[in-house]
Design goal:
Elements: E1 9-13, H1 17-29, E2 35-39, H2 42-51, E3 59-65, H3 73-82, E4 91-95, H4 100-108, E5 112-116, H5 121-134, E6 142-146, E7 149-153
Parallel strand pairs: 1-2, 1-3, 3-4, 4-5
Antiparallel strand pairs: 6-7
């Protein structure tokens, strides 16, 4: 079964190239019909987001590593939340060790989730399903697997 692109974008910010490629590969393997844009630094992601470079498709979800080498995931999250927009973006922090600041942001903003970064490759599929559940567009009531593809149903 072929899934057509939904013209939605998932922005994934992760400085570990191998983890970013695992994420991208599993997204494709699951048959997700969203585009995925990867950034390896918070500064690079912020420049692109602020310039509107990602505006060709609506961003359904930002997935942010908390511990980035230049701008932390929490700083990037605050910058994203401060940007003028017609909708509040969904954001997922993905980290082995969440900071107090990230936990507080999640408590104060219901559109932000905190997910534990998998320590084994076999755990990635489950975490990605959790992430994708956050990315369901408005009007989508459920996300299901069918023939190995992730499908959104209204």
């Amino acid at each position: 079964m072929s899934v057509q692109p939904s013209n939605e974008l998932i922005v994934f910010v992760e400085d570990d190239v191998s983890e970013a490629e695992i994420f991208r590969g599993l997204i494709r393997k699951l048959g997700v019909n969203s585009f995925v844009r990867l950034y390896q630094s918070g500064a690079e992601a912020l420049r692109s987001i602020a310039s509107g470079a990602d505006s060709e498709f609506p961003v359904s979800l930002y997935v942010l590593d908390i511990n980035l080498p230049d701008i932390s995931g929490t700083e990037l999250c605050k910058a994203i939340l401060a940007m003028p927009t017609s909708h509040r973006p969904r954001i997922a922090f993905l980290s082995h060790m969440p900071t107090r600041e990230a936990i507080k942001l999640c408590e104060e903003n219901p559109q932000i989730a905190l997910l534990k970064k998998p320590s084994r490759i076999s755990e990635y599929k489950d975490v990605i399903k959790e992430i994708l559940a956050l990315a369901n567009p408005p009007g989508v009531k459920e996300t299901t697997m069918e023939n190995g593809n992730l499908l959104a149903r209204s």
